Amino acid sequence: MEHIAIFASGKGSNAQKIQEHFRYHSEIKLSLIICNNPKAGIIDLAAEWKIPVLMITKDDQKNPERLLSELHKHCIDWIVLAGYLWLIPESLINNFPNRIINIHPALLPKYGGKGMYGMKVHEAVKQSNETETGITIHFIDKEFDRGEIVFQAKVLLNENDTPDSIAQKVHQLEHQYFANVIEQIIIKK
Question: What fold, for 103-189?
């Protein structure tokens, strides 16, 4: 069995799709939620799923020994970032080489990097009059949104799209593809 930890900061809609996908999977299991926001909706979802939650602080990011210990205690093989906004510590990357998967709400390398998340990305896409946007699923490295790209999916935009409608289109892609691509990556390894 391959065990996944999801790192999340928000309401957890992508985590929910991932849990639904793997709930009865014979080879992959969601085993731990890591959260840095005590008000995040993902906490309630994890309780409903009976999956343990580890709350972390900035200190845990700077000195991730406690975090690494918890990941090993829960036999975590893979980390999935689902709306997690902090930079992952280098020691964690070194302990999980090519085993930390992120989703970004744009077609990297465009609209990536520090500070480019959520509506900020969709506003930048709109402001640049892009005719398409999408999602990028990638491994992470020491820099925001620079790791090896594994998968991209596109959606067409028109002049009537707003940042909100762009966000909705991108969110549909996330829900359609993220769990499937995670499964393909894990099964291939």
Answer: Rossmann fold (3.40.50)
**Which part of the chain is CATH 3.40.50.170?**
1-97, 103-189
Q: Residue 60: which pLDDT band, with cuts at 50, 70 and 90? A: confident
Kindly list the distances between the CA atom of residue 18 and the CA atoms of 9, 14, 176, in Å, as whole numbers in the listed order.
Answer: 15, 6, 10
**Catalytic annotation, residues:** 104
**Is the pTM above the cut of 0.90?**
yes
